[in-house]
Amino acid sequence: MVDATAPSENNALLRHAAITGNATTAVVPSASSEALSAYGKFTSIYAPAQSPEWVSSWIDANTPDAVLATLSANGRPVMSVALEVGRDGPFRIARFLGGKHANGNFPATDKNWLAAANAGDIDVLIRSIGKARPDIDLVAFDRLIGDFNGLPNPLLKLPSSPSPNVALAVDLDGGFETVLTRTNGKKKRKRHRSQERKYEVVGGARRTMATTTAEANAMLDAFFAMKEQRFGAMGITDVFADTEVRTFFRKLFVDALARENPSFVLHGLEVGGKYRAVTGSSRAGNRLVCEFGAIADDELAYASPGEYLFFDNISEACDQGFDIYDFSVGDEPYKRQWCDLEIQHADVLIPLTAKGRLYALGLRSLSRAKGAIKNNARMWALIKRLRSGVRGKPVTASVEED
């Protein structure tokens, strides 16, 4: 049995659970320093976008209207979700911190509790959010991953629908040589050597991982410039353009450097003294997740520096013992060259008001329409051509997300 309560924001989550001694939920309407300190300190697993590092960095950079909700069972916390409340027209929606940058979501959870988790428990958490924040019309748990390290996502105890964008990944079982045998490895090796020779003509290639603040900022500077150019050419909104978003990623990856085994890492391919490709990845349990990536659209774009960097990134992921290299959300040809796994994320929409029910209906209809378009290769290719044609510049395959 789990009861719902909504303590004041100054009550630490863990202390509240300890004092009551009863099964309960605690909701903090705003992210106080005390609540942030308590978040995720119980024995928990979490996907990158619900990690304490991600949550605190996003709040510091964006100062959102944040909600930290924790479910406790038998006097101890067992699950926390960090959400931000934003407006969409007349609606107030609570979503994972990070917006479209938050993918493959899995809440901070006590793995020992998962076997006992049920839909009633999650419903209590939702109801407690509604009591603490009656202004919220809808709670949207977007892009949920089905399992994390083989453990089931507790939020999927509630009814869900498929997310419109598939995520692609590489099964690393057997090591890099085995991966190559499944993905036309002879051709990949030959192309990798050919690319290397082309890079040698202009000074040679150097793949590095950022280990200092200066290196991390230099890679991110290059990445943001690449994205700005790329998205401009595609005729779509640059989701990395906002100052707050850039500040968030700088803080996330720079702060990670202080850890012995950073959860967030940057890799760059430098050719002729300039970064030509950059990727930002998260170490998420048994998988290495490529959170973002881009290439420079310059005189060396023809030599596919993104493809070259991925070759080395995937090889290193095998050496480091990861089971999966996850390209995250988006179906692109450069991913299909490697991937043998399709990961279907799911969306859970919980209306809290009549307005929320109307909004959820619209979101579900839009999601189905997007899914239908993206599952139709011809239609999706036409949409992308039309979209890029708005800016009058064709685009080539690159390291991009949908």
From TrEMBL:
InterPro entries, per database record: Acyl_CoA_acyltransferase, BioF2-like_GNAT_dom
Domain annotation BioF2-like acetyltransferase: ranges: 186-336
Origin superkingdom: Bacteria
Pfam families for this protein: Acetyltransf_6 (PF13480)
Name the UniProt record assigns to this protein: GNAT family N-acetyltransferase
Organism field: Aminobacter anthyllidis
Record lineage: Bacteria, Pseudomonadati, Pseudomonadota, Alphaproteobacteria, Hyphomicrobiales
